[in-house]
């Protein structure tokens, strides 16, 4: 298993409070993503776990699954993929003045809702954690290191 990385952020304990009115803050963990797998990388990962299928076979199945799930969503069906979860259609809409004036034009978007399966309910007990610097702190450290390199390079001008 891997490790979930987080940094620390100090935030107002009452969201929406104006800065001048903040009376107390709390420290919160903030998830720091380690990366992002493409569908091809996921297919390769699955293939590397002793699958009898190749990366290409798995990628083709995943790509076909995407097309089929999309088709079923557009037919108004939900798709349950076992422990992975359920994909279901959802709509965004605007209200109408009355039922008689309501029409399909009030539907502004068709979205996909995903509800994770039971194996994804809460992974806390299976996770390990590591506190890391925030992205802002990392950027400052990189900027300082670059500035130091520039200074050192300037000190050597004409000496090498």
Describe this structure in words.
- The structure is a single chain.
- With 160 residues, the protein is α+β, with helices and mostly antiparallel strands.
- Helices cover 31% and strands 27% of the residues.
- It is built from three helices and six strands, in the order ββααββββα.
- The protein has helices spanning 39-47, 55-74, 135-155, and strands at residues 3-12, 25-32, 79-80, 85-93, 107-116, 128-131.
- The strands form two sheets. The protein has a three-stranded mixed beta sheet, with no helix packed on it. The chain has a three-stranded antiparallel beta sheet with strand order 3-4-5, covered by helices on one side.
- β3 (79-80) and β4 form a beta hairpin.
- α1 packs across α2 (55-74).
- It starts with a strand and ends in a 5-residue tail after the last helix.
- The model has no long low-confidence stretch (mean pLDDT 90).
List the helices and strands and how they pair.
Layout: E1 3-12, E2 25-32, H1 39-47, H2 55-74, E3 79-80, E4 85-93, E5 107-116, E6 128-131, H3 135-155
Helix pairs in contact: 1-2
Beta percentage is 25-35%
Tally of helical runs: 3
Low-confidence stretches: none
Mean pLDDT: 90
**What's the helix-strand series?**
EEHHEEEEH
Measure the end-to-end span. 49 Å
Q: Going across the biggest sheet, name each strand in turn.
A: 2-1-6
Structural class: alpha+beta
What spatial form do the alpha-carbon principal axes imply? extended
Number of strands: 6
CA radius of gyration: 25 Å
Q: Helical amount among residues, as a percent range?
A: 25-40%
Give a quick account of the main beta sheet: strands, pairing sense, barrel closure.
Answer: 3 strands, mixed
């Amino acid at each position: 298993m891997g490790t979930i990385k987080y940094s620390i952020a100090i935030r107002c304990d009452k969201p929406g409070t104006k800065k001048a009115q903040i009376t107390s803050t709390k420290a919160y963990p903030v998830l720091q993503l380690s990366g992002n797998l493409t569908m091809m990388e996921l297919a390769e990962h699955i293939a590397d776990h002793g699958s009898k299928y190749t990366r290409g076979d798995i990628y083709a199945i995943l790509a076909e699954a995407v097309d089929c799930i999309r088709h079923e969503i557009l037919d108004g069906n939900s798709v349950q993929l076992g422990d992975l979860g359920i994909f279901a259609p959802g709509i965004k809409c605007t209200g109408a003045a009355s039922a008689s004036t309501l029409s399909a034009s009030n539907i502004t978007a068709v979205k996909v809702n995903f509800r994770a399966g039971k194996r994804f309910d809460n992974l806390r007990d299976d996770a390990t954690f590591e506190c890391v610097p925030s992205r802002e702190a990392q950027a400052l450290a990189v900027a300082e290191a670059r500035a130091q390199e520039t200074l050192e390079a300037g000190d050597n001008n004409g000496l090498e």
